[in-house]
Amino acid sequence: MLCILMAASYRGRQRGPLPRLFACALPVFGLLAGDPPADQIFVGFIADTECGPDHAPMRAKGNMGKNDKECTLKCVAKGATFQLDDQELPRPFAGEKVRIAGRIEGDTILVRSIARAGS
Questions:
Q1: What pLDDT shows up at residue 33?
Q2: Rounded (10°) angle between helices 17-33 and 2-9
Q3: pLDDT > 70: what percent of the chain?
Q4: Which of 80, 106, 108, 109 is the most exposed place for a label (fewest CB within 10 A)?
Q5: How far apart are the C-alpha atoms of 9 and 49, rounded to whole Å?
Q6: Residues 6+ apart with CB under 8 A from 114
């Protein structure tokens, strides 16, 4: 509808076909693109896909570190992942409470920023 109205507004003017084409195409492309989703704030602990939030069973097996941070890093070294799009950014925060700005896509958080969260 918008495209037809834009093209009709050029009728009767002394312009070539290109302005009509662009007047019609640009609003359509703008409608299709839309605004990107806004960031959300997520507060939680950096864990791995092997242990999830509870590292005690894995640490009880032995050789998985003495705390959540060491266990998380060992699990990731053995092939587990963080449920985040960036696998390097969360490493310094392994096992810690963080505040992540980003958005969810499927079952993964797309991280824009990450910082330690207050207690």
A1: 57
A2: 160
A3: 69
A4: 106
A5: 57
A6: 89, 90, 93, 98, 99, 100, 101
